Amino acid sequence: MEGGSGSSSPCPLDKEFSDQIAVLLSPPSPESIKDYYDELMKTRKCNNLKINFSNSSGKAVYAIKEFEEGELVLKDQILVAAQHISNKVDCLVCSYCFRFIGSIELQIGRKLYLQELGLSANKECKESLSRFPEKACTRVLDDIKKHSVSNGSHGIGSSTYTNSKDNSIPTEVLQSLINGNMSLPYTNLFALPSIFYCPGGCKEEHYCSKLCTDLDWESFHSLLCTGRNTEPSKRDAILKFIEHSNGTNDIFILAAKVISYTILKFRKLKRLRFKENEKRAKLDETDFPLLLEAWKPVSMGFKKRWWDCIALPDDVDSSDEASFRMQLRDLAFTSLQLLKEAIFEDECAPLFSLEIYGHIIGMFELNNLDLVVASPVEDYFIHIDDLPSPEKVEAEKLTRPLLESLGDEYSVCCQGTGFYPLQSCMNHSCCPNAKAFKRDEDKDGQAIIIAARPIVEGEEITISYIDEDLPYDERQTLLADYGFRCMCPRCLEEMPGM
Ligand SMILES: C[S@@+](CC[C@H](N)C(=O)[O-])C[C@H]1O[C@@H](n2cnc3c(N)ncnc32)[C@H](O)[C@@H]1O
């Protein structure tokens, strides 16, 4: 099997499992696409849309009712998503649904504490923060909790708090905010879900509920947990994989989640099959169909190899294109080797081929939507600012120093990237009739698509993959990265020579 970009693959599994890999990567038939999405629509009670398949533009989403401008078209649950590593310093969110958790006080105190650490820490600490921010962030929280002063009497109005020249807040005040020993005014109006901890004891992942904790554990995290319950050699291997991803491209974390998801689903299907037919001692001959079944949600996503489909960056000369793509492939191979050390499973060996890994990452490249969740901290400070005068003056005695210390960063939202099974079926148009848009009530990472103008029954739902205000040539250049030339009504009208 070719490794893409014209040279043979460095991964022996590509050759060993070439037949199974070809089956895993073959485009699903129109019938299986229909069955899969009909079922998905049914379970998600999504009665207003349908997915059709055509040879010209693949899957496409159609309205089966009229939508008014601004009406919700689709709320789509995440198949797999991750918060950007750098964003973990700014926002503490549920690792499964990406809702903000804890309290306003914790969000503010934690962020300022980490900011302070990043600014004033010694070199070693700064390096560990940039190389491994996830770990550093959670360790820090843990340390604060262990060493906190338990009487809770930290006067927020003390001179050290208000007179600080460089806007920094004393550590004991931050500890009190983090530990819940200090309350800010009006935060009861912005209550956040309490924190649930990882059952594997890793302190890296936090949740908003028992349900999210269990779903993440069952779907992804039980294979990727670095907690005390994981065997030490495995834990070291997982940590090495994460460290490499954090230092290179956090899209590898998402790919690892897809592989974990497929393995865990495969195991579940196998357990069910054993129960159904307990007399059978061995299941070998039926294992691959089970792997195919487990892989089905991923098989539906539009895919190309990552190093073949990624756009050539502006600073890479076209004469260096082949070597650029080869470097990407080698980077993916290094990441895959580390992941293999951590979670390889014999029965799911084809999933650890470079061919599959490259296609999973390529699927994100062509389909992913930015994951964005607005910060409740921003809403909180806006609320304080909107208070009538006496209440505002009183509240700001406590909140203003915090706001000043946070600076422009006070309103950073949760940011990441996610693959959404239904939204990812939406094709592009430069005059789209729908758009991704979070409303005030959307507090988690689900994809929200609303009508950008009235949509009639039977119309295809389209969104824009790019900034549609750009001129024709620039739009076409950007869309070439997605592998197509746009022929929407606007492009046909603006096409030179038409
Ligand atoms: C997010 S997917 C959209 C769903 C896709 N049609 C499918 O079958 O899965 C993006 C891919 O769909 C195709 N696509 C999207 N919009 C298109 C358009 N206006 N014309 C042609 N192909 C399009 C391109 O191949 C693009 O890389």
From TrEMBL:
<dbReference type="Pfam" id="PF00856">
    <property type="entry name" value="SET"/>
</dbReference>
<dbReference type="GO" id="GO:0040029">
    <property type="term" value="P:epigenetic regulation of gene expression"/>
</dbReference>
<feature type="domain" description="SET">
    <location>
        <begin position="47"/>
        <end position="466"/>
    </location>
</feature>
<dbReference type="InterPro" id="IPR044237">
    <property type="entry name" value="ATXR2-like"/>
</dbReference>
<dbReference type="GO" id="GO:0005634">
    <property type="term" value="C:nucleus"/>
</dbReference>
<dbReference type="InterPro" id="IPR001214">
    <property type="entry name" value="SET_dom"/>
</dbReference>
<dbReference type="GO" id="GO:1990110">
    <property type="term" value="P:callus formation"/>
</dbReference>
<dbReference type="GO" id="GO:0046975">
    <property type="term" value="F:histone H3K36 methyltransferase activity"/>
</dbReference>
<protein>
    <submittedName>
        <fullName>(wild Malaysian banana) hypothetical protein</fullName>
    </submittedName>
</protein>
<dbReference type="GO" id="GO:0062211">
    <property type="term" value="P:root regeneration"/>
</dbReference>
<dbReference type="InterPro" id="IPR046341">
    <property type="entry name" value="SET_dom_sf"/>
</dbReference>
<dbReference type="GO" id="GO:0010311">
    <property type="term" value="P:lateral root formation"/>
</dbReference>
